Amino acid sequence: MKHKVLVDVEVMAEMDRAVNGAKDMADRAKQLRRAVREFHDFIKDHRSMDWVSLDVREVYKDRCSHCGYEWEVDDAGVPVCCQKAIDEHESAKNVALPAPSPPSYSPSREGDEL
Ligand SMILES: [Zn+2]
Q1: CA dihedral of residues 70, 11, 50, 16 (deg, nearest 10)
Q2: How many angstroms separate the alpha carbon of residue 55 from the centre of ligand 1?
Q3: 0.85 exceeded by the pTM?
Q4: pLDDT digits over 37-51, tens only?
Q5: Which domain holds residue 27?
Q6: Is residue 105 part of a domain?
Q7: In a domain, 76, yes or no
Q8: Distance between Cα 48 and ligand 1 center (Å)
Q9: Which end of the chain, N or C, is more open, meaning fewer C-beta atoms within 10 Å of its C-beta?
Q10: How many structural domains compose the chain?
């Protein structure tokens, strides 16, 4: 039977006011990391709370660079979101797997000695 067990606890700090006109998510992360550094400097001046440590947790998800949908592949490893991703996958496969060349044989000195 499935049941819910508490295995970890974390504190969430809301620091959205530290973000001003972020260009994108990477810029938002950069501004939040700076805000956390400044907050640590502030904490250092308040000895009773100087054990507090904050960190910025960045969550990444794979998305398609063509259509922006979450990256998913079928059982054969082929993307399922859009034709451009499928085409890209097919052309990458052709580059990764060049036409089979005959096995090269280099005479081995050790073999000659036997
Ligand atoms: Zn796509």
Answers
A1: 50
A2: 33
A3: no
A4: 999 999 988 989 888
A5: 18-58
A6: no
A7: yes
A8: 51
A9: N
A10: 2
